[in-house]
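Journal club side-thread
Mid-discussion, someone asked how the predicted structure for our own chain would compare to the paper's figures. Pasting it here so we can look after the session.
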Amino acid sequence: MAYKNLDYRYETVNLVRSEDARPDYINQNPSGVPTLTELDGQQYTQSMAIMEYLEETYPEKAVLPQEPKARALCRALALEIVSGIQPLQNMGVAYLHILCRGSWPKEKPNIMIGAKQVGAVGEVTQMKHLRDVLIEKLWGVENLMSRVAGKFSIGDSFTIADAALIPQVHASHHSFGVDISVYPTISRVMATLRELECVTATEPDNCPDFVPGGNVPLSVVAVAKKQPPQ
């Protein structure tokens, strides 16, 4: 939205305080995921769907390549992060670990890789498992990007793949201690991205709900300030 110069109001829902479980929020958004709400009350959920909707509604500054093959590669790279990596970091995975770890077979410790913050001992032990998975999956992203990247993740224009990459790099480095410098293409593209004002202004560190020294336990809710064109 910042890249497209759209006017919106930024609201947050604190997941640690279970604000996503409030009846009023659940009634509006049963899945509890980031939401775009328009002035007429219409809501859209899921990051990829929201980005594609904004692209179709406000096409002036495109975030998808025009050529079909490049568009498919762009979507694939974004989904590699949005669907393949980000869900592993969700708090619900940690809660599932807490509920089920006593019944998991001891000979399969890696089944617990999803846990994040589950107490002093569990945090140290299980974070290592998840960190290893993130490192491996980021190498998959690096491999894909090395084939299609130019100045940005896909060619020489900002796309939804870049929008997905930015928060994942932040989470991987700041929340899980992953050394991003070992990924040459990702590092190069991130350096280019950070030259854009829309990127630096909206990186997690600069968001009003940023929690220093930890993960950002919030679900972003964007509220459009004007109706989309008919």
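Post-session note: The first strand starts at residue 8 and ends at 14.
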